[in-house]
Amino acid sequence: MYELISRTGQSASHWGGTGFLAGAAAATIVFFHRAVFSGRTFIGRDMLRVYFPLYRYWAERVRNGGFPEWYPFDGLGQPFVGAVVSGAFHPIHLIWLLAPPALAMNISVLVCFPVSLCGVFYLSRSLSIGRYAAAFAAITYAFSGYAICITNNFAYLLAVATVPWVLWAVDRVLTGPSIWRVGQASAFLALLVLGGDLEAFAISCAMCVPLAFYRCTERKDVRKGAWVAAIWGFGTLLSAIQVLPAFAVRSASRNATLGVQEAMLWSVHPLRVLDLGLGPIFAAEPGTEIAKSINRELLSTGMSTLWVDSLYIGLLPLVFALVALLTHRRARGGVVLLCSIALLIVLALGKHGLLYPLAIRALPLLRSFRYPEKIMPWVGLAIALSAAVGLQTIESHARVRRWTVLALLGLGLACTSLGLFQTWNRTFLPNLFRGVWHLAPPAALEFVGARLRSTLLRTGIVLSLLALFLRILRTVSARSGAAIAAGFLLSYLSNEPMYQLARPAIASEPSPLARRIIELDGPPSIGNGRVYRLTGRYGRSESLPVDPAERFAEAQAASLEAVIPGLWGLEGSNDYLPAVSSRVDDLADEFGAFATLSGIFTTRYVIASQPDLAKLPSSWERVGEDSRYQLVLLRNNGALPRAYLALPHCVDNPRASARLLRHPQFSPHREVLLECDSHLVTPATGSPGQVFIRRYLPEEVLIDVENERESILVVTDAYYDGWVATIDGAKVAIMPANHSVRAVTVPPGRHEVTFRYHATGLRLGAGISLLSLLVMIGCAGMASWSRSRSVKTV
């Protein structure tokens, strides 16, 4: 970047590659010492609710010689590959084949940080940034608040680790294009999709544009745009195995109905600029009144939690980045990077800015790319690279170094003074928020004030000491080492408490209510009854864990929230994963408490909090409880079986079927709502026949039917494209039944009915990806052979 960066296209020396890798591993161990040495595992938020169940299921299916195309444990079933977060084709899944789940999760998470550190280091070196400044950039990015906190959502952590390698590989193409380098950059780009983050793929493609613009110094360099387009094209083709199934399910999934407001949840509030410099000021324990007040009233997230608890980059990198921008403001690289940072920040503001709402209304497809806060890793990377240039500038110019020392000293003293004043007058800093936080509870104001006091004090002390060291140390290596140490120390103090761990037993041993269901129904198997968690507050008792993160994870496991039932082989009626059918999602949205309809969808068990029992039918049998969290397990003995015969009750459209499900005259045991062209049909009396489920697998259901008259066979699994039904080997049409599940018409007599699922687009996508890979290898081999032949001829 800037004038200090060579435009010769030559990669910087790989000095210290092995040494830096060792240092990156050591820094990761130090930062994550609790995860490495405590015997606990990463279990925050979606790690337990999504990735433990999904990855464990993937590993079990692959070990048994299969491959998962359908996931039966969430939202009445949904496509496994189409739910992009499953990352079904990412190579990191191989760890789950070799290690038990808790260890596999720890290894998967921890390996992302040395990968991220090395990626930023090599990207910086490729841009001719010195090795010490490159190390500072790597520390700043890899241990930023976003990167540490996103250890609660693995797909996005993988993207954080991969993005620097994408830009490094693209820059290598721009400085010395070759087929092999295009293939390398395309492969890194494809890994973003295969890891489960389509947004990271799109944003990284966009970030290639300013990088290409920076590298174009002459008119003929416009050809580099063609190389970037080639990378985009091959990256898309290589990831077709994931892209095509994802787009195939989009129109039928909940993403097709996302509104503008839902897409802009978790926008970065302007007040969180304090997070960038000081650390996690607004991160309160989830579920508490303090957290709800901060998130809903002060930061207007629209949710009761933050997307990530910390956006920390650090005052030190921000000062170095400002030095770079001021000293190289007229350089081409400085302008490109400044514009990129500004654009990214404006987009990350989401609903608090102007650009994102305009873009998302003009391009509805962008609504699938939810939560503007996800843009912050690219902001962090741009600031980290700017900070590296700033550090290099400081070491190259004594005058700049003197002014920087004075700025750091002044900033350090100011932070320390504010922190001490807040210690003396605890209402000083919180009162600054009263203008935008009118309903602030005193406890919440006190919490924010305490966080500000501690962050100001530690930041001020470290910056003051660094200013002193930069003044007295005489060598470049010593001064740079002091800056790196200070940056790492501030990141550690601010962000180390942010990653969440808990006992592995929470994810490996069934909770009391899960064990109770297994006692009542026997060993779990798909095709049995489902369980539904009625949304409600958790109770508390004296026996709960002291650590908030472990207490929250244990509460989620105790109530079988989200996808957690899949850990124990129990199917859930709750819809959480992104590929859930929009029809299933409709019912949850329209009726709120889906529990009252759940028996229609073979939901035998409902877990409710004690205060919510009044919302449920009194006829349901109370069969268990968990006094720790005041949870009650109820059994609905009238729940419909997984497959049954009924008589048709035709309706005109999906909306009508959703409405009539609650009509008092609708009899779900005898009739089924079908979206037919004819008018409503009054069902005849009498039993329509018998059903026997011979085989029930995720992608195949085999049912024997015996009936005396034409009937409708209903299977209470989600209606979705990709399922094919046959009766005695002859293909028949599958109809949406009871709004959300599937059914076929069965003629009189004895018949064998089979349902089989093949992920739409999977086989075509696999063929495209494989062919693209072979073409890339072939072209690279031919280019290499041609060059070697030319050398021999000469």
Shape annotation: globular
Separation of the first and last Cα atoms: 38 Å
Strand % is 5-15%
Number of strands: 19
Structural class: alpha+beta
Number of helices: 28
Specify Rg, calculated over alpha carbons.
29 Å
Instruction: Indicate the low-confidence ranges by residue numbers.
Output: 1-15
Number of domains: 4
Largest sheet: 5 strands, mixed
Which percent range fits the helix content?
40-55%
- Give the integer mean of the pLDDT values: 87
Across the major sheet, the strand order is 6-5-7-9-8
Keywords:
28 helices, single chain, five-stranded mixed β-sheet, alpha+beta, 4 domains
What does the model show?
The protein is of the alpha+beta class and 794 residues long. The protein has four domains: 19-152 and 258-501, no CATH class; 153-256 and 761-794, no CATH class; 509-635, no CATH class; 643-757, Maltose phosphorylase, domain 3, CATH 2.60.420. The protein has 28 helices and 19 strands. The strands form five sheets. The chain has a five-stranded mixed β-sheet, with helices on one face. It has a five-stranded mixed β-sheet with strand order 11-10-14-18-17, with helices on one face. Strands 12-13-19-15-16 form a five-stranded antiparallel β-sheet, with no helix packed on it. Strand 12 and strand 13 (700-707) form a beta hairpin. Helix 8 packs parallel to helix 10 and helix 16 packs across helix 19. The chain is globular and about 95 Å long.
